[in-house]
Specification:
0% strand
């Protein structure tokens, strides 16, 4: 139990993880963004994800056989835009590979810029956006989440991918006592799963009970906050800032 509490503390508190410095709590914040944005895309833009590309490929398969409610064009647009954002995130990662804090700050600034475009489109498009607004939102949001995913991959903080939970849940179960393991990283993995779930719940609640633009507005504010917080590390060069891959 003490080890579990230590993992929780290192994941959510600034600088407690000696290997990753302040990165874990910042990436937890970006995991919350994923829940918010995918709640918006799935509930407002139709059956399409802008962060969860595994799910999107499955939805594309449904659309290809003519299942009602699914769109080939929407799924392909999301996948292509996500790839474009990932490429942009890769370029940022290569440019700022010498300092992970700078990398996260610049990448989340670019992501926030794309999210800001999404907020504007959502405000103009309303609760039932027309095709033009819908595809504009799919592009801007998928680009933003592609940048986020590429950045998390470059930062390489264990079990904090920010957009994908399949391996996180697998690791939690496989490494548990039931699975024959020692429960390694159970605390961090639970934080990641709970945070994305929380983002999805908050995003869905905003959409169902308030204004559809609110999930994107909160996502924008969180991304901007992470960018500013990461920028505070620019002038220092601690061991955690050195790129691991």
């Amino acid at each position: 139990m003490a080890f579990f509490i230590t993992e929780l503390r290192e994941t959510v508190l600034w600088g407690r993880d000696l290997k990753s410095g302040p990165l874990p709590p910042l990436l937890v914040s970006m995991t919350f963004v994923t829940g918010l944005v995918d709640a918006f895309s799935y509930l407002v833009l139709g059956h399409v994800f802008v962060a969860n590309m595994t799910g999107n490929v499955v939805l594309l398969g449904f659309a290809l056989v003519g299942a009602p409610g699914f769109s080939i064009v929407a799924s392909v647009t999301a996948i292509a835009s996500f790839a474009l954002g990932s490429a942009a995130g890769g370029r940022v990662g290569a440019r700022f590979a010498d300092h992970r804090g700078r990398l996260l700050s610049v990448a989340t600034f670019l992501q926030a810029t794309s999210l800001a475009a999404g907020v504007s489109l959502a405000a103009l498009g309303g609760s039932a956006p027309s095709a033009g607004y819908r595809y504009g939102l799919i592009v801007t949001l998928a680009v933003a989440m592609g940048i986020q995913n590429a950045t998390a991959r470059k930062l390489a903080v264990p079990d904090l991918t920010t957009t994908v939970l399949t391996l996180t849940i697998t690791g939690f179960a496989a490494d548990s006592a039931v699975g024959g393991g020692k429960g390694s990283k159970a605390g961090r993995r639970l934080v990641a799963v709970g945070t994305m779930l929380g983002g999805a719940v908050v995003g869905a609640a905003f959409i169902v009970h308030h204004e559809v633009v609110l999930p994107l507005l909160v996502a924008l504010l969180v991304a901007a906050g992470v960018s500013v917080a990461a920028a505070a590390t620019w002038r220092s060069n601690p061991n955690w800032a050195v790129s691991k891959n």
